Amino acid sequence: MDLFEKLKTDMGPLGKHSSIAHGYFAFPKLEGEIGPRMKFRGKELLNWSLNNYIGLANHPEVRKADAEGAAQYGLAYPMGSRMMSGNSNLIEQFEKQLSEFVGKEDSMVLNYGYQGILSIIDAIVDRHDVIVYDSESHACIVDGVRLHQGKRFVFPHNDIANLRKQLERATRLVEENKQGAILVITEGVFGMAGDMGDLKGIVELKKEFNFRLLIDDAHGFGTMGKTGAGAGEEQGVMDQIDIYFSTFAKSMASIGGFVASTEALIGYLRYNTRSQIYAKTLPMPYVVGNMKRLELLRTKPELRKNLWDIVNALQNGLKEKGFNIGRTQSPVTPVFLKGGEYEAAQMTMDLRENFGIFCSIVIYPVVPKDVVMLRIIPTSDHTMEDVKETISAFEKIADKLNKGLYAGKLTNVPV
Questions:
Q1: pLDDT digit string (tens) for 244-285?
Q2: Max Cα–Cα distance, the chain, nearest Å
Q3: What is the pTM of this model?
Q4: What domains appear along the chain, each with residue ranges and CATH number?
Q5: Which of 100, 203, 243, 410 is the most exposed place for a label (fewest CB within 10 A)?
């Protein structure tokens, strides 16, 4: 069989819907200034689908820093990978600020979050080592684990009792082989369900087992903890996290990421993380803009307070109306409804076309086949009126769903 023909006949679990989904349900185009109100197909909608937690995307100081960085350096500088020709004093200064903020000895700025953590996992374990990871880990972690040529064990989400069993298996292996070590990986905040990883429960197991802990805190950094330093700070175990990773793409509303740990571990990663050694460094305008974002994150706690005011109003309001928002402990707000892919599509269209609301919709295989998840990402830029409008709309679509008005195949996708 021809390779292209094979791929054409099997588009994958998400791609199989592409003929009707593309441009509307998948790959939609939101236009205009980033914020709670944006245009979709020429119509202004209330938008709950942006990773801009504390409203930095269009903050005037951020826009000014971004513009000045671009004017001063352009997008080319520094040219090349950091190891070869792309290092700078400003990047090193930024790394020092990040390290201090999350309470680690050193840090390394990454050109992209996804490929960064994938490559970090690849760099720190070899075929003798054992990885133990949470079953609901993000795709970047799963892909990093797939690169691992040694043993890997998965534990059911936040199941500490089962994690203990996997650590017992892992410990027997490394002791029998008389070489190798154990790496446990989880998330600070899980981006779909919104609950935190049980970091307290995991670090408690350090009293029984010898392992290192890697945390992906993409959704916790900037939103959780007294200062916004993340889920580790929220749970009081930041000092027990051996390797702390986050992206700049969520609270910072930017590009890139960082990893923080001991000086020795970061020194090792600088010389062994392939996605950084063999790729261009983060362009200087992003570095300048991200430094301003970090400054505002640290010095403007009112931005985080505004976010949580909206989060609490939204989540409490949804629960009061009988909606199932699962186990979220963070700004990520999932709303679980009963239905299949056709009901999901009809609801999405109704929300966008008749209620003026844009939010992400999640179906199988991310959630079970009979579940539809509407995923809301609140920001500090949203208002209480936005919250009221959304809860009212959700009540109406839930009533339609219960009456079977969304049943049947989708036939009239707007064009």
A1: 999 999 999 999 999 999 999 999 999 999 999 999 999 999
A2: 64
A3: 0.94
A4: 3-53+301-402 (3.90.1150.10), 60-299 (3.40.640.10)
A5: 100
